[in-house]
Amino acid sequence: MNTRLVDPRTIWAVLAMEAGLALPIISLPGQGDRLPGVLGPLLLLALLPLGFLSVARVRELRDPSWRLLTGIGLALLGRLAVSVVPEPGVAGLAVWLGRSFVPAAIGVGLWWRGGALCVAELTAAEIRTEFSVLAVCMIGIMALIRPFLLADPLLLGGSVGLFAVGGMVATALSRQDAAETASTGSGRALATTTALVPIGTALVLVSILRPALLGVMWTTLARIVELVLTPLGWLIAWLASLLPRGGPPGPLPPIVRPTPDALPNTAALNELQDRMEWLGWVILFTLLIAATMAAMLVARMLLNNWIGSPTRPTPGPRVDLTAERSGTPRGDARDLLGWLMRWLRGRLRLGRSASTAGAHDRLTEPSAADAWTAYRALLEWAASKGVPRRPAETTGQLQTRLSTQDPETIEAVAVVTATYEWDRYGQIPPRPDRLRRVRQALASLIAR
Fold it and tell me: What total number of domains does the chain contain?
């Protein structure tokens, strides 16, 4: 299965294909009252490629909060270009917002779809599958729900052409991306030309030889769809025949013309208008409440994206305290005695040389009863050399630092460190011959 991602330039053909499918669907609800016709649907449709381009160019729009706010603003701005506020004031603005809710929601959806395609990772197989599925949807839209579309031949023909061209070009470019045969120069142009030549040739031949054949083609397609759906219609008619029917229709009643009532006076009309005024206030308050809830929803999205919801930190696993052994009682007693002697010498002011000599005497007889004690002796020797182990330093890092400072001690430090690591982290206690080598290494270090 080929899982190579298509080039971002191929997504523009996918955008054209999806625009060709969406344009007939939004043709009726996207119209404006000030400028009816195809301008309103085209302004909404422009949000699809605009969302793709904006998210690709402006990284801040990849934030869901900013993307949603920008889409709402652009959709309302597009509606303001083709529709008019019925009257000045809050009431007129509320009525305009109510009329523009459905078209603005369509525009926001197209804007969001374009931004999603910018960050989507599509493969060639997914593009071919989308083209096949949308082609079936396009045939169903043109054949079944034709009465619910704007009766504009130019819009319908342009939608079909845009869908066909976008789908063929997207399929050709995606195959080129999957095979990794695209080049920077003529490769893309050749694939696009290969996809457009059959469609263009067919349209030119049909328009020259048989101009009326285009209409016949659509009529034939509608007849085929009708024949396919005929068994379904028969089934519905048979089910309807099972329902009980009423008696035979009787004679029609005579037509009685109602007597026109007298026109009410002006006072009655004013009174009726005052009674119905509360309904307008209820609608206004409902719209204000809906707008407030939408603003709260947007603010919540902003806070969740920027600050994040406060969460209580989950307690980590309980770690048992491990006490490491450090030497033997005999070694500890010797260390305590040595410290006491150094303290007495310091108190008697024997000088710094006596203290250093005492430290050297203490290290002349290394104790390596086990790996732990040997490594502790190594740490004391390193501290006496002015290279103590740092709190956040590992055994390997200390070994590297000691070897860098004095390269002649590389082998001795490596033997003591490796023995300690095997015992401490690998649970491999040293054998007697290994301990003998450790004692010899410590003796060589102290002798230096």
Answer: 2
Same domain? 349 vs 205: no
**3-class SS letters over the chain:** CCCCECCCCHHHHHHHHHHHHHHHHCCCCCCCCCCCCCHHHHHHHCHHHHHHHHHHHCHHHHCHHHHHHHHHHHHHHHHHHHCCCCCCCHHHHHHHHHHCHHHHHHHHHHHHHHHHHHHCCCEHHHHHHHHHHHHHHHHHHHHHCHHHCCCCHHHHHHHHHHHHHHHHHHHHHHHHHHHCCCCCCHHHHHHHHHHHHHHHHHHHHHHHHCCCHHHHHHHHHHHHHHHHHHHHHHHHHHHHHCCCCCCCCCCCCCCCCCCCCCCCCHHHHHHHHHHCHHHHHHHHHHHHHHHHHHHHHHHHHHHHHHCCCCCCCCCCCCCCCCCCCCCCHHHHHHHHHHHHHHHHHHHCCCCHHHHHHHHHHHHCCCCCCCHHHHHHHHHHHHHHCCCCCCCCCCHHHHHHHHHHHCHHHHHHHHHHHHHHHHHHCCCCCCCHHHHHHHHHHHHHHHHC
Q: Looking at the domain assignment, is residue 308 inside a domain? A: no
What's the confidence (pLDDT) of residue 156?
A: 80
Q: Cβ atoms within 10 A of the Cβ of 113, count?
A: 17
317-346 per-position pLDDT tens digit: 554 555 555 556 676 777 777 778 777 877
Mean pLDDT estimate for the chain: 76
Q: Does 203 share its domain with 335?
A: no
Torsion (CA) 226, 231, 236, 241 in degrees, nearest 10: 120
Which residue, 210, 241, 267, sits at the end of a domain? 210
Q: Are residues 203 and 346 in the same domain?
A: no
Q: Is residue 78 part of a domain?
A: yes
Residue 68 pLDDT more than 60?
yes
Q: Are 120 and 129 in contact (CB under 8 A)?
A: no
What's the start-to-end Cα distance of the chain, in Å? 67
Asked whether residue 29 is domain-assigned, the answer is: yes
- Per-residue pLDDT tens for 150-206? 777 778 878 888 888 888 888 888 887 777 665 555 566 666 776 666 666 665 665
pLDDT tens, position by position, 313-322: 455 555 455 5
- Of the residues 210, 233, 260, which one is the last residue of a structural domain? 210
| Whether residue 201 sits in one domain with residue 350 | no
* 119, part of any domain: yes
Range of the domain at 40: 10-210
